[in-house]
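We were asked to recover a plausible sequence for a given structure. The inputs and outputs are reproduced exactly as logged, with field labels preserved.

PROBLEM: sequence recovery
POSITIONS: 301
GIVEN STRUCTURE:
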């Protein structure tokens, strides 16, 4: 029997009898705005686990990079290669292997979500994004827009290339290899999603450096929690129908909770607790996770 080493917002990390192996256990919890919602989504953990495993297998088969997945040992669990996590910025030795890179790589293919809100506020420019100044929400970007955010801070923070290199203490070549891998993974995701009428809008990925400091894809990705999806037929008719956790975010934006939360955080006040989801939203969300697993993987749930 192992012991729980870490309790995340939607995932538990357990030790195993092998010191180089961990077990991920995916829960049915759901979180938005870095708050855990006091509602459970039936079979959500299973959907995340099986979807990520599907992508890991495709990435390895394509020879893009290695992954930390060893095997799926239960519907909502998997065994992974352990990587060392060093939380002190700049403290990772340059010769260390099987170490987590403390960066999150975000690749955007369409202008939406937080990027659109930042664009409206003038924090991102049309030139940076490669769009026309009079563009509308949902426009396809001429080139993938890559951003990097921090790990191990209270809230994710967008950082530039220089700070990313300083925090992670990786070389420029290793940084470029990670970005190249993220873009290549998205090409596979886009191709697979398109088979069942889906558009891959954006997503985030995390990496480690393994044997000989080779890039290793880790954690979870390509799911409704990390990525954004639209229906391609609706998009062709001018609609951006959210098929991701953005669906739940939109609920709390509509109730005003997101605005209250932002004000409290900006003022350094006490955060308002996030209310539970209505049963109708729970049911819709569970159905969405199940149906999206089938559309993403072309497999039965």
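RECOVERED SEQUENCE:
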């Amino acid at each position: 029997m192992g012991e729980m080493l870490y309790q995340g917002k939607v995932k538990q990390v357990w030790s195993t009898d092998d010191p180089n192996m961990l077990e991920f256990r995916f829960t049915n919890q759901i979180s938005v705005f870095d708050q855990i919602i006091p509602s459970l989504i039936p079979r959500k953990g299973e959907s995340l686990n099986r979807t990520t495993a599907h992508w890991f297998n495709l990435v390895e088969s394509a020879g893009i990079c290695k992954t930390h997945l060893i095997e799926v040992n239960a519907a909502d669990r998997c065994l992974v290669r352990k990587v060392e996590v060093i939380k002190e910025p700049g403290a990772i030795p340059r010769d260390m292997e099987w170490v987590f890179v403390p960066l999150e790589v975000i690749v955007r293919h369409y202008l939406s979500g937080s990027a659109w809100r930042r664009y409206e506020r003038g924090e991102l420019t049309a030139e940076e994004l490669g769009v026309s100044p009079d563009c509308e929400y949902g426009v396809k970007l001429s080139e993938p827009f890559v951003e990097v955010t921090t790990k191990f801070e209270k809230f994710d923070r967008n950082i530039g290339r220089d700070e990313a290199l300083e925090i992670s203490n990786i070389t420029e070549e290793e940084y470029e290899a990670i970005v190249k891998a993220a873009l290549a993974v998205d090409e596979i995701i886009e191709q697979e999603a398109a088979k069942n009428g889906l558009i891959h809008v954006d997503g985030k990925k995390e990496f480690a450096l393994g044997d000989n400091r080779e890039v290793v894809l880790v954690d979870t990705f390509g799911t409704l929690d990390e990525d954004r999806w639209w229906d391609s037929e609706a998009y062709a008719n001018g609609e951006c129908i959210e098929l991701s956790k953005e669906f739940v975010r939109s609920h709390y934006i509509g109730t005003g909770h997101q605005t209250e939360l932002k004000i409290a955080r900006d003022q350094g006040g006490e955060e308002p607790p996030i209310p539970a989801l209505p049963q109708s939203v729970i049911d819709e969300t569970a159905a969405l996770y199940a149906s999206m697993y089938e559309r993403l993987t072309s497999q039965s749930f």
